[in-house]
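Q: Structure tokens for this one, please.
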Amino acid sequence: MNNQEVFTPEERDENEERKRELIELVASGEATLIVGAGSSARVGYVTWNGLLEKLEDLANRCGTGLNQTRKDNPLEYAEDIKSHIEKTADIGKYYDLLDELFRPNDQGYNEFHKMLVDLPFRGILTTNYDTVLEAALLGKKIEAERERRQIRPIDVMPLVIGPDTPRLIHEFLLARSNDPHIPQRIAHLHGLHRYRESIILSSEDYVENYGLRVKKNGEDQNDEDQGNENRWTFHRKLLWAVLATRRAVFVGFSMEDIYFTKMLEIVSTDLWGWNKSIHFAIMGISAGDIKDSRDKADTLKNEYGIDTVFYEVLEDEISEKKHKLLEPLFADIVRQCENKGRSIGEAQDLPDDTDRPKGEEPRSITSGSRDIFDWVKQATQRMLRRIGDED
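A: Here is the predicted structure, written as tokens:
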């Protein structure tokens, strides 16, 4: 299989152009990285489907009678599994399994994760329950100390949104504003394996933490569900703020999480027009799913302002190597960022906007991105007003 079978020459050129724009964004130091389960699967952790299979097996071992009618709605099915385990055994078994599946393993991290933490992102959020990215940060810190290189401070302790104190979360948001004194660290949006109260996995977890009950495939919501949309929880405010005030790069996502999609819908409705490039998603495409992948990319662009940069999934390879072309794509991004003179240390030392003479273009914004720069400033003010009104 080769690229010719996946892309026409015109499509390949268009994908390369989107890749060039992605590299410019990353090199600018203006982007936030949001990492999903696909990245951790590279070092042996289960994917979302694999997780559901493990939980289903546990539920069946706890007792018979698990209702499997909602398998087509993964979040609702996860809720059914959780409820079944709680009724037939001990809910502690549910959380013990999550801890077992996502605690540190022998593989640790790989070169791909090292590249993620080396790139000049303003902040890194993950929906994963593991600490793969923290391991990569620790490796980065040890390497810098061994080579006596000066880098931005690093804190390898996970930041868990919810259980951790508002002060630490505030520091994380400050770091997104390029404060060189705030350590680089990883923020876990949906919990950590060892903190059961932090885990967001099932539909009711999302209702509690996001104030949203989202139906699949356009199903109607009842009055109670509609009322949930007026409840601006802390998680909802934080994710809204991240997506509204910084351009994001999504990695390791299928982009089919209906709650993430709902949040993108809310932000896009509040802040920007449709069919406008704001964020980027890096996703695989193979000869067997060309139409579905392109349709998904069109939806992301038209409805949520997300441009897709594709890499080829090698269908003929074993499972562990199907996504191996993602690594050279990121190696190219790292190389070109370095060519632009933008290591992560340099990105964090950029002067604040207040230090720039009035009317001067920021160094990290290209001439073709003035509208995005204006959008970020306006979005910040709207975010502050909206969150302030809800408190």
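A few notes: The longest helix spans residues 370-390. Strands lie at 31-35, 123-126, 159-160, 186-188, 247-251, 279-285, 306-312.
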